[in-house]
Amino acid sequence: MLLTGDRPTGKLHIGHYVGSLKNRVAMQNAGTYDPYIMIADKQAFTDNARDPEKIHNSLLEVALDYLAVGIDPAKSTIFVQTAVPELSELTEYFLNLVSVARLQRNPTVKTEIQQKGFGESIPAGFFVYPVSQAADIALFKGQVVPVGEDQEPMLEQTREIVRTFNRYYNTDILVEPEGVFPPKGQGRIPGLDGVKMSKSLGNAIYLSDTEDDLWQKIKSMYTDPAHIRVEDPGHIEGNMVFTYLDIFDTDTEKVAALKAQYQAGGLGDMKIKKYLFEVLNNELQPIRERRAEFAQDREGVLQMLKDGSEKARAEAQKTMHAVREAMGIAYWG
């Protein structure tokens, strides 16, 4: 089974698209897996507990992004985390199998704590969310998890918890997952300013951005501050326009020629930004159009989430029964 998902704290951006969404669609269409895709609203509360309206409003936006990129509810089960209470139960059991010291060593958590500026006021739910994530994967016996490169420490922690559970309770009912990662160099797309793409930093290009939004954002992209005149030689290292062209433009020969011309002098920033706009707009236009179509039937999208959540819960209950039996707490069969 394939298991993956996203937190509903806003619309999804092109970092999500390249980092995992494209992999999910390709694997779904391969017909080899049974994909379960979770909208992790419970996890979103770990750092948005004071803003439940944000999570509520974002739920549908994330679902629309899923459908727009090609995730098909006829091939993939899309469900909502809080609609499967067995996930919370398994998380509670898993918390007894991992130490505080191990959680503190998780590099992904350490980085995110620093980025969010929690200081000494780290919400307990945020601190232990790798355990919740392990339960999300294990409850559905996720064998394959398409994720970005930065999530490998989370997967390793999941594998450790699964091994500990199976060893403690002398069973093999839970499965150690393996990650499927994007092509090298595409795992983490920097934002418009060259730092990590983030909603909170306002440096992201969203899948739902209009053509005008896209152009305004590309015009603001960081290039080479020393490239003042067109005839000046420019640097491509750290130049976000070329970083994006390397990722999104399939015409590698043209990109190589543009790089050479830019480095030699004679190619202006606005010209390459216009070219990048064409490349990105060609990629996003069909996504944008499909999203608009699905958005016209919001009740249908919500029903899709309800149906997927009911199917997911039925699967979760099967695994949870086996977990309780292994732990010796299935007292009434």
TrEMBL record:
It catalyses: tRNA(Trp) + L-tryptophan + ATP = L-tryptophyl-tRNA(Trp) + AMP + diphosphate + H(+). GO terms for molecular function: ATP binding; tryptophan-tRNA ligase activity. Its EC number is 6.1.1.2. GO terms for cellular component: cytosol. One of its GO terms (biological process) is tryptophanyl-tRNA aminoacylation. The keyword Protein biosynthesis applies. PANTHER family: TRYPTOPHAN--TRNA LIGASE, MITOCHONDRIAL (PTHR43766:SF1). This is Tryptophan--tRNA ligase. It comes from Weissella soli.
